[in-house]
Structures are given as C-alpha cells and as structure tokens.
Design brief:
This protein is α/β, with parallel strands linked by helices. The protein has helices at residues 39-47, 84-95, 134-146, 174-187, 234-238, 284-306, 339-343, 404-410, 413-433, 442-451, and strands spanning 70-80, 100-104, 125-126, 129-130, 191-194, 196-204, 207-214, 217-228, 243-244, 252-259, 273-276, 315-319, 330-331, 351-354, 362-363, 366-367, 379-381, 393-395. It folds into two domains: 37-51 and 69-246 and 329-451, FAD/NAD(P)-binding domain, CATH 3.50.50.60; 251-319, no CATH class. The structure holds flavin-adenine dinucleotide (FAD).
C-alpha cells in the first residue's frame, strides 16, 4: 500500500462563523511579555524587531535609492525551512538556550505535513515499540489531543500487521499542528521569519553570512551554524556544495478530500490525491508550475467525477494549497546511507536516531512498498546530516545523504523530525562548546537528546 493511500473515509472540516475569534482578542496574560524573557533573549529578539515596544532602532545598511535597506542580524543557529524537520531543529536549538532564527518561505510551519496536506505523520512505532519520540512526537500528541483525534493502537504494530503501516500513521489537522509548532517556537524564543528565502550563503569566519529577501525585507544574518531544512538542499547549493538528483524523480501529489452526501449511492471509494509528475518545489518557477499543474489536473478530475452516476452531488472538502513533492535533491554527506545498510538495520557508530518505513519508491504507475524484515529498525548517523567537506553546516529532512532507495524510506515525517532534533541539538552544543557540530562528543549529544525526550540508539 502506498505511503499516503488512505481509506476513502472523509471527514470534512466545518467552521462555525460564530466561533471565529479575532486574532487580537487574546485572553489577558496569554502573550509573551517582554519581562518574561531573559535579558540576552530580549536583546536578541529586540534586535530582530520581534519584541513589541523594545524601543530598539533597527540596524540598516546604506539604502540605495530604489533598494530596500538591509537589516543586519546575528544568530547562533540559523535554520532555513520551517517544515517537518526544520521546525523541530529550531525548537530544539531554542530550548537549549542559543539564539535561533527560523526562516520559512511560506506562511506557516510544518511544510509538506501542513501546507502540503500530508498530515498523517509516521512512523513513530515499529514492531510493537516506540522508536521515535522527542519534540516531534510531543507536538503530534498535542495536536491529536487538542482536537480529540484518537491515536492509532500502536500495540498492534507487531508481526505482519506492521506491513499495513498506514494504519500506524497519526491522523491530524495540519493547521492545528502548524499553530502548535509556532507556539512551541515562540516559547523556545525562536525568532520566526516567514515569507523569506536565502539568496546568498557565504563563509564568514567560523560561521556563515546568509542574505535573505522577503516581502519588503532584505536582511543579512551572521550565524555560527546553519541548518538546511528546505527539503531541496537549497542552502547547500548556495554554499557551493554538491547535491544529487535523479533524472526522473518520483511524482509529487496534490491532496484533497471529497465528500458524497450520506444519501448518495456510492460507486467505489473517492480519490484523495492526484499525481503531479516531476513536481519540484525547489525554485519559485518550478513550484509555480507544479502547483498550477496540480490544481488544473484536480479541476479536470473533479468535473469528470461529478458527471459520473451517483457522484452528481460530490463536494470538495478541502484542496491543499500546494503540490507536495516526494523527491528533489539529496546531499552528498560524510556518510551516504545505502539501501543495503538501511534494510539491514545497520547500527552506525554515530547513530543519533532511529527510522522505520518500507522502501517506498513511487512511479507514475503507483508504488509497491518493500517491507523490512521483522524486527529491523534502521538508524540515522550524524554523518548523513553533514554535507561532505562543510563546516558548521547541517541538513535535516528528506534531502538527507542517502541513495535513492534508502531515501524513499528515510523521507517520511517521523525520521525527518528526529533528524531535525538531532541537528538542532548538535548545532546548539557546537555553539556552546566552541566546536563544529560534527565535533560535539557523541555521548554528550545523545545525553542531551535523551533529556529532551528523544529516543537515541547507542552507537555500534
Ligand atoms: C504526497 C506525499 C505523501 C507522503 N506520505 C507520507 C506519509 O504517509 N507519511 C509520512 O510520514 N510521510 C509522507 N510523505 C513524506 C513526508 O511528508 C516528507 O518527505 C517530509 O514531510 C519532508 O520533510 P522536510 O522537512 O524535509 O521538508 P518539508 O516538510 O517540505 O519542509 C521544507 C520547508 O522548507 C521551506 N523552504 C523550501 N525552500 C525554502 C527556501 N529557499 N527558503 C525558505 N524556506 C524554504 C518550505 O516552504 C517548507 O516549509 C509524503 C510526501 C508526499 C509528497
């Protein structure tokens, strides 16, 4: 069964207009007050213009006529891409007390999981035991609990049943997860910058100088460590390091929910996704193309479906705002995880997280998952998150260093979250110790991750 093939049970989201609360009607005391923040964080967030009433004048470079002034910012950890992995990386770094900035091209956190509509993260359990926890799991549980959504019965994830893995993915509301992730970032004093992208990444002493542009903004961030969580290794490419891409990539998908009136006489289950061949969100131009093709294909299919007998009253529940991509670029890391290593459950000496998913390569004709042998739980080495030949640069998420087939499994959300947490912790510890993330003693990194709730494999 494909990663995302869900039974056609559809629950439309309904909003009661009477219950819409204006954003500025917060109950007293619910906002973060300036006095709640530590002095160093106040200065940091104030310099970013993110603390109301801080009274600090924004530093601007010389403004050429017709150009936006350039804000000068500083961070210990700069995370680019606030998706599945990047959100967790930033929260982890922020919770460890270092100055953390999270830059996201879109309007909310969660990436493919929220904006892409793949709001059924997996897999946190394998063979009857939990293998991934930590910050991602914390947010997933919160999102399920707040909305009263049941968690799967993970105790059933044993033996052959583990091969029916979609049933062990957690069904969430993506928008709720995004809001909770944002709340966790604010609590960890992560400075959020939506609608921005890097346009240049240059070495700067021990760290990096990253130029950002956004809507009416230009900024230069001097950072000690940098984490690429764009899903496309875009920062790695800007830093001049190699990335890999297949000539033909797996199809992306646009996701939607359709509903029939309960009185209708259904003729088969309803589709929930439409493949978009060659979907590539790595540039604005290719992303525009993927979104247009996805939406136009949806319209064609929806119109055709409504003409079928029994479907005359078919309704759209939700059409996700972006086409989601399964595969674009991967980095060339210090370690490259091969399919054989993944499938044998290799225990790397620098393992920092577990992963579990079948090898799951989609083709235009569909997907046939290749399941792991009973009891196998692969691991993720820190070296696969470090671009080869780089310094103070890490990646987390689907562009992890791996061959194509290992990547088709590692790309799913729970491992992406676990990688994000490991990268965030490694960078924060590197800043605190004055070393590079790769030089942080593994035992220390594992201890810190475990203290933050992560499940960490012991090295080989
Ligand atoms: C159709 C489909 C079905 C799937 N099914 C499942 C499933 O059933 N279960 C499962 O667990 N996983 C599934 N996956 C896989 C999984 O959802 C993704 O691989 C994973 O979410 C990727 O996480 P990420 O953090 O690497 O990237 P993303 O979550 O995509 O995050 C990348 C973020 O970076 C931002 N960004 C990109 N470029 C820039 C830039 N230049 N500057 C600033 N920000 C930038 C993006 O806006 C985005 O928010 C599926 C994927 C797809 C596409």
């Amino acid at each position: 069964m494909p990663d995302d093939f869900l039974p056609a049970k559809v629950e439309p989201a309904e909003i009661n207009p009477a219950e819409i609360v204006s954003a500025d009607c917060k109950p007293a005391g619910s906002t973060t007050r300036l006095s709640d923040l530590s002095a160093s964080r106040r200065t940091f967030l104030g310099a970013l213009g993110l603390v109301p009433g801080s009274g600090l004048v924004l530093a601007a470079g010389p403004a050429d006529a017709g150009n936006l002034p350039v804000r000068q910012l500083a961070a210990d950890v700069l995370v680019i891409g606030g998706g599945t992995a990047g959100t967790i990386a930033a929260i982890q770094a922020g919770r460890l007390g270092v100055r953390t900035v999270l830059v996201e091209a879109g309007s909310q956190l969660g990436g493919t999981m929220t904006t892409g509509g793949v709001d059924f993260p997996g897999l946190f359990w394998a063979w009857g035991r939990q293998i991934i926890a930590g910050i991602g799991w914390e947010l997933v549980q919160q999102a399920a609990e707040l909305n009263g959504d049941p968690l799967p019965d993970f105790s059933l994830s044993v033996g052959e049943a583990q091969h029916r893995h979609p049933r062990f993915q957690v069904r969430l509301r993506g928008g709720l997860y995004a809001a909770l992730a944002e709340e966790a970032c604010l609590a960890a004093e992560v400075a959020l910058r939506y609608y921005e992208c890097p346009v240049a990444v240059k070495p700067d002493g021990e760290g990096w100088l990253v130029e950002l542009v956004g809507k009416g903004t230009r900024a230069e961030v001097r950072c000690r460590t940098l984490i690429d969580c764009t899903g496309n290794a875009s920062v790695v490419a800007l830093a001049g390091l190699p990335r890999l891409r297949e000539q033909e990539t797996q199809p992306g998908s646009i996701l939607f929910t359709l509903t029939r009136p309960t009185t209708a006489n259904p003729t088969g289950s309803l589709p929930r996704q439409q493949y978009v061949l060659g979907a590539d969100p790595s540039t604005s131009e290719t992303h525009t193309d993927a979104n247009i093709r996805g939406r136009q294909a949806f319209l064609k299919m929806f119109r055709a479906l409504r003409k079928q007998p029994g479907n005359e009253e078919l309704k759209l529940g939700d059409l996700r705002p972006e086409t989601a991509a399964r595969e674009t670029y991967r980095i060339v890391g210090e370690t490259i995880i091969s399919r054989e290593e993944y499938e044998s459950g290799k225990r790397y000496p620098d393992a920092v997280a577990y992963a579990y998913y079948p090898v799951d390569l989609h083709t235009p004709g569909g997907v046939r998952p290749q399941h792991l042998k009973e009891g196998t739980v692969p691991t993720i080495p820190l070296g696969a998150l470090v671009p080869r030949g780089s310094r103070n640069l890490m990646v987390a998420g689907r562009c992890i260093s791996s061959d194509r087939l290992a990547n088709s499994a590692l790309r799913v959300q729970a491992p992406c979250m676990a990688m994000g947490q490991a990268a965030g912790a490694a960078c924060a510890l590197a800043v605190q110790r004055g070393s590079t993330p790769a030089a942080v003693p593994l035992e220390r990194l594992r201890q810190v991750l475990a203290k933050q709730g992560a499940i960490v494999p012991a090295g080989a």
